[in-house]
Amino acid sequence: MNTDLSFLHLIKEASLVVQFVMLLLMVVSIASWTFIFLKRKELARAVEITDEFETQFWSGDSLVELFKKLSAKDFAPEGIEKIFLAGYKEFSRMRQAGNVEPVVQVESAQRTMRIELSRELDRLDEHLAFLATVGSTSPYVGLFGTVWGIMNSFMSLGSVKQATLALVAPGIAEALIATAIGLFAAIPAVVAYNRFSTRLDRLTGRYELFVEEFVVLLQRQAHSK
Fold first, then answer.
1. Of 1, 50, 111, 126, which alpha carbon lies 20 to 30 A from 163's?
2. Within 13 Å and on the Cβ side, how many CA atoms surround 111?
3. Contact between residue 144 and residue 25 where contact means Cβ atoms under 8 Å apart
4. pLDDT score for 13
């Protein structure tokens, strides 16, 4: 019998509780890998948009031209573009209202950008908590299956006259598979969570720095005649 068949045979012969633990961990692992690929693509897209926007923002074009260009895009604005559009739209609305102090104009735009920034970060942070949970709990779930399987193996020795390693080895091997599957689910989730958290922190810093720099430009514009 080859290795793959032996592995599948051990899973098939495991107790119902251990099989349920294995199935749960496999489902969690598949979901985890799905979120990993989606989040990787999402964060890469957010960084790409930020790079392109900052190039346009500091290219020397006026804020009005940049606002019109982004508003006329065929695709909906994303990431830092939404923060800029929300802030400049609010700033323009306050200026057109008349009799509004420059400080109030800038503060209103800043609050609007902060709100949009929070929404964007909440969107990017989605599913990271799931990866953290998988990474921290999967080994313990797998360990539960292992303990349960080993416990059943030793309990079965009570019905035999002579206990040998050959009697308990299959049961222990079945149980240890649960731990292996738990680690298989946990390790990628932990690595992905740490990597994505670092990238999100860097992106957050860029967003916040942009908001501060944009506020300075709006202050100059608000006090200009």
1. 1
2. 8
3. no
4. 67
What gap in Å lies between CA 14 and CA 143, rounded to an integer? 15
Helix residue ranges per DSSP H, 58-74: 63-71
132 pLDDT above the threshold of 60: yes
Cβ contacts of 197 within 8 Å, gap of 6 or more: 128
Mean of the per-residue pLDDT values for the chain? 85
Instruction: Kindly tell me the burial class for residue 58, based on how many C-beta atoms sit within 10 Å of its own C-beta (0-12, 13-18, 19 or more).
Output: exposed
Structural domain count, the chain:
1
Expressed as residue numbers, the domain containing 100 is 3-222
pLDDT tens per residue, range 15-68 = 788 788 888 999 999 999 999 999 999 999 999 999 999 998 888 878 888 888
Q: Report the number of secondary-structure helices (H) and strands (E) in the chain.
A: 7, 0
The rounded distance, in Å, linking the Cα atoms of 202 and 124 is: 12
